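As a warm-up, study this chain.
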Amino acid sequence: MRALQILATWDPKKEYHLTDKEIAEKRALKGNHIYRNPVLEMVEKEMPKPKDDEVLVKIGACGVCGSDIELLFNDDEGYTNWTSQCKWPCTIGHEFAGEVIECGKDVKYLQNGDLITLENTVWCGNCMSCRMGMFNHCENLDEIGFTADGGFAEYAVVKEKNCYRINDFINVFGSKEQALKVGALTEPVAVVYNGMFIRAGGFLPGSNVVVFGCGMIGLAAIALAKTAGAAKVIAFGGSSEYRLKLAQKVGADYVFSTAALKREGCRPADVIMEITEHRGASMMVEATEHLNATIPEMEDSLAVGGKIVQIGFSATKTNISSTKYQKCAASYIGTNGNAGHNIYPMIINLVTSGRLDLSPVISRCYDIDHAIDAIKDSKKTSEGKFLVTPFFNQ
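Now compare it with the structure written out below.
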């Protein structure tokens, strides 16, 4: 089978001290300190065989994520830009959906022919974090597409416990092809759901919600906020007209280009306060990498008791005004991952009920032979979601 694999040289930086885990497992906990000169290449691999608790999945669609783009770029010394854990060589791709075609002997929930989407975090269930229910912070975590083979391939094996059926998506979207394409969006939506509703505890219906960023994560936050009963959803994006229009399409009541506001000498915080009649927003979702630009705007337009949810990643330290949170009884919430807490079933329920439809964000599909092009093109353009669909005509 064909698969898009990443290879790199294990060459820890001189000032970096390897942990015992990194040495024993040949696993980087911080990829940008260890892996050098990463290369993506399409390879022929043997068809994987599922273990007793696994299923073999025929990949229907796999989404290009910003983290996949990071894998393509290096620093001046050739070290990968990827800052989190990884174990290479590995087939990349972690946002995917497919059809079950073979089940291990201990599989009970799934059967051949089921359409599934999946959590990409494979948690152990035994460590203290897992026993606390904090699966995304598992001490023995494997991540599909980073430390275990992922979905930019024709087939993949995954544990049954990570899979969720999406058979009913066919009734909503009219075909298996479209069901699987939309199913591949579940993973990024789950990341947002985890941040907004699990880690931050959500907001009261009728609240005002602000989202900074109109990429996939920002668009998912906009759609979820509207679905959950926000009175006004205010979105701020860059200069891409395409993404600003998508923000409106998926539920934003007000959409602004931060670049255009800057040219006009206007701050996003002032816009938010005017729209909310100077009450501010009850929830702010940060979905960019420019935290030192966005956080001050959020702090200056937070409602009393408001919450800032940080989903975007930044390599630099983030400056916050701690006194603001004291005086407003406000909260700053960090979030990571999407496992557990019934997140996937809730999103699937929202989709099958017709209350959540992010299908408009899909803008391009590529065959498996052009998976690298999908990643490169996603970096160069400011459109919606790019997918690799190995078995469907493009």
